[in-house]
Amino acid sequence: MNKFKIITHVLIAFLFMGCGFKVLDQSQLKNFKILEISESGDKKSNFFIKNKLYNLLNSNNSANELIINIKTSKEKGVKEKNKKNQITKYNIKINSTIELNFINVNLKKTINLNKENFYNVNVNHDVTRNNEKNSEKNIIDELSQDMFNQILKIINEL
Questions:
Q1: Smallest Cα–Cα separation from 64: which of 100, 25, 97, 96?
Q2: For helices 43-57 and 125-157, what crossing angle results, to 10°?
Q3: How far apart are CA 8 and CA 147, in angstroms?
Q4: Which end of the chain is less congested by CB atoms within 10 angstroms, N or C?
Q5: Per-residue pLDDT for the chain (158 aa), expressed as one digit of tens each?
Q6: Is the dihedral of CA 127, 50, 41, 74 positive or negative?
Q7: What are the Cα distances from residue 68, in Å, to 18, 52, 112, 126, 157?
Q8: H-helix segments, the chain
């Protein structure tokens, strides 16, 4: 019985060792030189996304060149109303499409990301505006993190 357990554990270990798992190499990110970033749509979202991409990818002494197109749209709608037909919650949705054009490899990839969040309406308009700004900031941070993960996967495939 003891030999059977040992053989079973060894076989299971060999199966998991050959599963093809590959660690994502983040050192490859700084090997790109951004030639151009063009943007259209929501300027505030594009500004934060563009800064994230520059911090993430840009290296002036790299031979790999990259052109990026960003298209972002923001939609604001009513999520919830109370019995008096007054709005109590708004919903914000940000759609972002990022086109990566790798010049040296002659490859184009597109990333589509959608995130949404809601915020509460308060009696005081300033508090409502702050809720809206915080909600937008959270969505943009989530978009940036998802974008980082997607770009890392694409670069590791190259």
A1: 100
A2: 40
A3: 41
A4: N
A5: 677 888 888 777 776 666 565 555 555 556 677 888 899 998 888 898 888 878 877 667 777 788 889 999 999 999 999 999 998 999 999 999 999 898 888 889 999 999 999 999 999 999 999 999 999 999 988 888 888 888 778 877 77
A6: negative
A7: 36, 12, 13, 36, 18
A8: 2-17, 43-57, 125-157
